Amino acid sequence: DNGGAIMVDPRLNVILAHAHDRPSHPLGHAVMESISVIAQQSTSQRQNSNELVNASANEQSRAYLCTGYHLYTTVEPCVMCSMGLLHSRIRAVVFIEPNPGAGALMSHYRIHTLQALNHKFNVFQVNLEMST
Fold first, then answer.
1. CA dist 57 to 38, 61, 103, Å?
2. What is the pLDDT of residues 11-56, one digit of tens each?
3. Which of 7, 23, 47, 107 has a beta carbon 3.0–4.6 Å from 103's, enabling a disulfide?
4. Are β-strands 122-125 and 92-97 bridged in parallel, bridged antiparallel, or unpaired?
C-alpha cells in the first residue's frame, strides 16, 4: 500500500507536484519525492531564466523551495519528511492516516511546534469516514 502526496500552491490553486512512495529507496517517501519534484522544477526554472546570475544574494537566500505551499498526503509524515518540509518552509500539511510507529507531526514529536526550530507550520488530520 503506497502512500501518496501532492504539493499545492494555494495562492494560484495549482497542483505543483505529486508523488508516491518508492519502497525501493530509503529516502523514497512520497513527501520527500514531492519536495524533490519542486526542487527539480525550481532548478530548471532558474537555469532557463539565468535567475542565479541576475538575482541578488538577498533574493537567493530567501528562495526556500516550498514557501507558502500546502502538502496533502495519505499518511502522517515521519521525522525525515517533517524536517524536509520544515527546511523547505511549507505553510501547511494535511494528512489522512496517522503514523503511530513513526509519525512526527501528531503521533509523536509535533516537530512543527518545537520552539527550538526557526519555522512553524500548520498541521491538520482529515477524517474521511463517511457517516451513513
1. 21, 6, 36
2. 999 999 999 999 999 899 999 999 999 998 887 776 666 555 555 4
3. 107
4. parallel
